[in-house]
Design brief:
Elements (H helix, E strand, L loop, with lengths): L1 H20 L6 H17 L3 H14 L4 H13 L3 H14 L4 H13 L4 H14 L7 H13 L3 H13 L22 E2 L1 H4 L2 H8 L2 H12 L6 E2 L5 E3 L2 E8 L2 E2 L1 H6 L1 H10 L1 H4 L5 E7 L4 E5 L6 E9 L4 E5 L2 E3 L6 E4 L5 E5 L5 E9 L5 H6 L4
Antiparallel strand pairs: 1-11, 2-4, 3-7, 4-5, 4-6, 6-13, 7-12, 8-11, 8-13, 9-10, 9-12
Amino acid sequence: MGAWRNSILTEAIAAYRKVIEQDLAVDDVTLKAIAERCIDRLRFQGQHTKAIEIHEILIRRFDDEPHYRNQLAVTYLFMNRLPEAKAVLHETLSRWIEDGFALVHYGFVLKTHDQNMELAVQYLREGIDTGHAGTQDGRFYFQLGDALQRLGRNAEALDVYRKGVEKKLFLSLYQRSLYNVDGLRSRPFWTMEQTTYAVDLERVRAEWMLIRDEGLKLLNADGVFVNESENLRDRGAWKQLELFSRGARLERNCARAPLTCRLVEQHLPAARSCKRGQVKFSVMHPGTHVWPHCGPTNCRIRAHLGLNVPDGTYIRVAEETRSWENGKWLIFDDSFEHEVWHNGTTTRLVLIVDLWHPDLSESQRRSLSPI
């Protein structure tokens, strides 16, 4: 069925391109409709480079309409080609300085690529305030608030988040995940019993010293743990070793940690199959601070098993701060804002296990896209 649908889509794209190639022989209304449909389907297939050709035809034909430049920038963002997206958006804003769509996307690039929080705040705020189509999106409120927090302007950030809640872009002031399922129970911290996985979690917890020994041994191997890659660190060192990701077993890493992977597969099917989470060792060094941040989805519950926990390590989830303990689970909903400090003197090691939210049905778990 999938191959048949893909074949139909490919045939449709070819038909659209034949019309588009006639360019000047096609009237404006038809060209716009056909070209945008073609771009949509090329993006769906991941053929972004081919979509760029269509964008350029539209820009040449409709040079006085910023929409077509903005959409080229979006395609570059899909490709993770942020410098090209920035250049296109800069060109748009040089001609249409109050275009809200270009402003918020330019602010997004300034924050995520350039790490220029001050300018990012300016552009994101101006763009959101226009109210133009495409600006009232949780991602832009999220990025604006995050930039303000990193500048130490926490009261302003909370005001942005409150507006996001009012517009129903966020589930609540502190629960700001963007890929959600309605109606799931939410609380910052969970007990083992509340997860409904208490028996399974206890079976893994009972082996915590063996898991700890396996993790500590790997800490001494070069190139096994890799840096956290989402730019969440304010300072310090925070690394991880993924064992399962998006519901898939990572064979190379499980070969290095066979006992831990076996325990997860035997006792935690809700983690092994969780397409919206990971299982990983997480190591944090003294002097580390992790910025306040939210996970992407409310579809999982995150469990930390303390393995090597020194004094002076803390995690805040929403408005409550706790610490880890060796051989115990600390369970929270990472779609809520959380922040981490390591003020101790030795390395902190935990095993992170993401579990399907217990309120999700089996059919929902099967149908949800990976994150």
